[in-house]
Design a protein that fits this description.
Largest interface: A-B, 98 and 98 residues
Order of helices and strands of chain A: HHHHHHHHHHHHHHHHHHEHEHEHEHE
Mean pLDDT of chain A: 83
Keywords (chains A, B): Membrane, Transmembrane, Transmembrane helix
Radius of gyration of chain A: 32 Å
Structural class of chain A: alpha/beta
Number of strands of chain A: 5
Shape of chain A: elongated
Helix content of chain A: 55-70%
Number of helices of chain A: 22
Low-confidence stretches of chain A: 1-20
Protein name (chains A, B): APC family permease
Main location (chains A, B): membrane
Strand order of the largest sheet of chain A: 3-2-1-4-5
InterPro entries (chains A, B): AA/rel_permease1 (IPR002293), APC_K+_Transporter (IPR053153)
Oligomer: homodimer
Pfam families (chains A, B): AA_permease_2
Largest sheet of chain A: 5 strands, parallel
Strand content of chain A: 5-15%
């Protein structure tokens, strides 16, 4: 059931205990609303990406917006159709990682996993920048501070997630619905207008349209196509979440998938129709979506509603990464491709590290892009398409192995999808290489290599630990406990108590340096010790200067050498002060000793916390 | 003997074990060379500080260079005389901190200590910038990169000290001698010239001389005096190092002190005579010392020799802070004014933190000053003068309590010195307040407050620990050892062995989460456990999700509540991988459990390192 969660927007496994009743699960409609968040949100930057590429060929180029969009819609159709098949084939939830693991072997599945990891990170960056762009389109005065606003939004989202809030998919239904409805209204109204009702938003902004209308080459169209395909991100989310649908799961999930394709297609085509009808020109600082809202609804409350809806949806879409990535990492950790800490159902602390790591990398990307969506979108597309391609190829394999009725048709469909997405991935990478695609080209193999290194290390360690094999029966050794002592106090007494309870024999040791005051101090301690007479010998260890831990460590080594039968334990008493900053004042000797003993000996190290009360 | 080291340029206590023979100790001459490093080095920036202030009053103002220098020489004489008395009164080595502690109470001694700390830090910054200035005077092309060069030099010095190299005072003799001799030669030769033999160095550099010759007010002269007094820093070093002189210590130290005064005085006066004779004008980018070398020796190899000698001496002078500050901190830590870690004769690691901290703060000052000596010099002077003043006031007290023969005269002398230095301190602070003196005005009280807070905390904790008091006799409790287990391996076996050796009773516990796979895993573990049959029960702890440590912690608390007589120990086995990075793959469960248990229970935590072999 955990595979459910190997994709953005899906709900982490922990959120859905197996005993959840059917009525808690998703219908086609609720499922659509709950899981299509990312896909719908991508409408905010997809069309813009197309227009910006075509603008390089001047007004003439913009004429190709609609054709390109239709091509993308075509690809969308193919993807939806083939994901319907993924749903049927993987009712337990697919996810390119799972599909590849079953049908394409470990290496490929790792590539899929790596691309997913990159997607989660880029999804945060893209959604945040696009959301801020929606806001700055409404309030142009904020445009110059967009990077800071992006970082602020990121901090906000991170803060929410640090508090451990992972909201259920259901929370997404309302904002998604609001957004979709408002976009559809925008399109519907716009279709009844022959000319833009307002161009206030774009007024006074520099047009990025090239003046010299160059000829529109195939490469340019490919570029536009590839960039625009970023509007298809998130189409896979439904296929990964089949188990959270109400029975008949597959049917409902498939229906939701088709509905998603339909709505997304309508929105994309509708928007591009309006773009051509209003002869809309891309300008710096105002999103295409904002201009369209302006043109069809006018520069009034409706305009601001759409901007805010967009902003909020994109923020939520960024948030899904924080829910999804940890779960993917958990899957990888379970398969020994990542440190097991990621698989720990541990206390909040651990979870926080992950959140912070994700936030930091995203922040890096935000700074790298200067808060500009269109720098990040292509990178995002690459990872997504790699995932698509792998999933589809995996499906082809699946059909060939299954050879069920009409398997050739299904295989053909998936194969066609694979080719399209694969080509798109290559095109984006090639055309955007210098603009940042190199990041992906470097990061992806590195990630895969890292996964494999970790995996090899775990295998080796596991073998040497004899994991799973039943070990030889345990035996009891004589136990000698050593207590480092520097003065006489309730803490010392407490330590000696613990030691006598733990050991067959106990020795207190104190380190003495060759200078006068140390010798005096040691002598004083010894006399006080005799006076106390705890029935435990106090051994004085001479030491060269600048050493406290090493003498004790070598003493321990010596004992281990002389008395092979004994198990040596070093018990280090520590004060637990009532105020946190007072930690700085305490236990430093202990830390030094523990460090040395751990480094140079095989002794067990005991730390006794003594609470001041 | 440790007080020896409470001042810049002195040798840390550890460097001079008490058994060192007399022949290893210093004579008046070697002592002078070894301990006057800082004082001599200050000649490189002292006169310059005067000239720069006076330049504000134009050529007319520069005419007062000699009178001001003479006044400073006068103060020098008073200081030397009164430090002769300090030497006599504190044959164990004085140091304003020690003097104040004996005669002026804790609060004042802390002020002295704080000012010393600031001096150490500022000494690094001033010496580095001045050294680089000497270099850039020889190679003007480097002038624009001076900040980077300062940081580079700092990194170099830090690196040397990180490697734990604290060279003995003796290493300073040669460079100090070279520097002093070359300066004296410079002066001697210059006195035989009526006009500068070369002005090549200053050529093409913008003069900082004010054109409109304003009248020279008393304030300006005070300013010049105060800034110039920075040339007196380091005069106290000898008085702090009496114990490292050969018998008769006091006599030899006093002789060295007088010699220091003489040499320093001669250099200061000599240089200022040349300044007036050559009508030298300060320019941006070339030090006054460089111009003088140029003027009297010509722009030849001799000029470069002097620049390099200066550079090297100043670098060494910066280095003394790295030897001296840790020792002062150790003194404060011994008196419970700083965390005890500073007093640990610990292994290199600890020492390194101190070095790095000092380097970071100095780097901050370098950036703050933009690599410009004359921004830092006044700040430096403030701290030094506070130290001077406190030491002298302390001496006045000393004489009044002693009431030896002619005590009035001695007290008068020290009192006079105190007034002079005190006034200078006030003047510098007032005149340079906006230029950075505010830093000191803020930092000093903060440091004192911090010292006192730490001291109070230690006293409280010490009382509650019953430090020194002989504790009640120890008793043995029944020992129950708990071993968290997640799977079966040699590590588990090793842990159970250790536990059975340490405890009267041993229980293995495993945490199980409510989801399916966890239950399956737990069941598998239990059956394997029965098969192994180590004679230790395996307890299954149910847990809400996202928790591994808490269930174990609460289990421990429950036991502690049920069985008051028992001492509970949690034994956490850890794998010690052979490669460092593999630490990332291991022991994370252990860390989480240890954290929770330490936080919520009073149980002893044992960590068993298991080396893969």
């Amino acid at each position: 059931m955990s595979v459910l969660t190997a994709a953005p927007g899906a709900t982490p496994a922990d959120e859905e205990p197996p005993d959840t009743g059917e009525r808690h699960r998703l219908t086609a409609v609720t499922g659509l609303a709950a899981l299509s968040l990312d896909a719908m949100a991508s409408v905010a930057y997809g069309p813009e990406a197309i227009v910006l590429v075509l603008a390089a060929a001047g007004a003439h180029g913009l004429g190709f917006t609609l054709p390109v969009t239709l091509a993308i819609a075509g690809l969308l159709a193919v993807l939806v159709a083939s994901y319907r098949q993924v749903i049927a084939a993987f009712p337990d939830g697919g996810g390119s990682y799972a599909v590849a693991k079953t049908h394409l072997g470990a290496r490929t599945s790792l590539v899929a996993a790596a691309s997913l990891v990159l997607d989660y990170v880029l999804n945060v960056a893209v959604a945040v920048t696009a959301g801020v762009a929606a806001l700055t389109s409404a309030f142009p005065s904020l445009y110059d501070d967009r990077l800071w606003m992006c970082l602020a939004v990121l901090v906000l989202i991170t803060g929410v997630n640090l508090r451990g809030i992972v909201e259920s998919a259901r929370a997404f239904i309302v904002p998604t619905a609001v957004f979709v409805v408002s976009i559809l209204v925008l399109i519907a109204v716009g279709l009844f207008r022959s000319a833009p009702v307002s161009t206030a938003a774009a007024a006074g902004h520099a047009s990025v349209l090239a003046d010299n209308a160059t000829t529109v080459g195939a490469l340019l169209l490919l570029k536009a196509f590839a960039s625009g395909c970023s509007a298809l991100t998130g189409v896979e989310a439904l296929a990964n979440a089949v188990p959270s649908f109400r029975v008949p799961r597959v049917k409902r999930a498939q229906r939701a998938e088709v509905a998603l394709g339909a709505v997304l297609g309508v929105m994309l085509i509708g928007l591009s129709v309006l773009i051509s009808r209003f002869h809309l020109q891309p300008v710096a600082g105002v999103t295409v979506l904002a201009q369209l809202a302006d043109a069809s609804l006018g520069h009034n409350w409706a305009f601001y509603v759409i901007q805010f809806a967009t902003m909020i949806l994109l923020a939520l879409s960024a948030n899904t990464s924080f829910g999804g990535l940890p779960v993917l990492l958990k899957l990888l950790a379970r398969d020994n491709y990542l440190p097991h800490v990621f698989a720990l159902k541990a206390d909040l602390q651990v979870h926080r590290h992950g959140v912070l790591a994700l936030a930091l990398v995203s922040a890096g990307l935000l700074v790298f892009s200067g808060g500009d969506t269109n720098t990040l979108v292509p990178l995002f597309a690459i990872g997504v398409f790699i995932g698509f391609t792998i999933a589809q190829v995996g499906m082809v394999r699946h059909w060939r192995e299954e050879r069920g009725r009409g398997w050739r048709g299904k295989a053909l469909l998936n194969g066609f999808g694979a080719v399209l997405t694969g080509v798109s991935a290559v095109v984006v990478t090639a055309t955007k290489f210098e603009d940042g695609a190199w990041l992906i080209v470097i990061a992806l193999p590195l990630l895969v290599a890292a996964f494999e290194t970790v995996h090899r290390a775990y295998t080796r360690i596991g073998e040497r630990l004899g994991l799973g094999r039943v070990p030889e029966p345990p035996h009891r050794d004589r136990s000698l406990v050593i207590v480092p002592v520097s003065n006489l106090s309730r803490l010392t007494c407490e330590a000696i108590n613990a030691a006598t309870s733990l050991g067959d024999e106990v020795r207190a040791v104190t380190v003495c340096h060759p200078d006068a005051e140390d010798r005096a101090h040691a002598a004083a301690l010894e006399s006080a010790w005799e006076q106390w007479n705890p029935g435990v010998p106090l051994v004085r260890l001479a030491s060269e200067r600048r050493a406290l831990g090493r003498p004790i460590a070598s003493y321990v080594r010596a004992i281990a050498a002389d008395e092979p039968g004994t198990r040596v334990t070093v018990l280090i008493p520590e004060v637990e002060p009532d105020r946190l900053w007072q930690r700085l004042l305490q236990n430093q000797r202990g830390a030094v000793v523990a460090h040395a003993v751990r480094k140079d000996t095989g002794a067990v190290i005991c730390r006794l916390r003594f609470r001041l009360s």
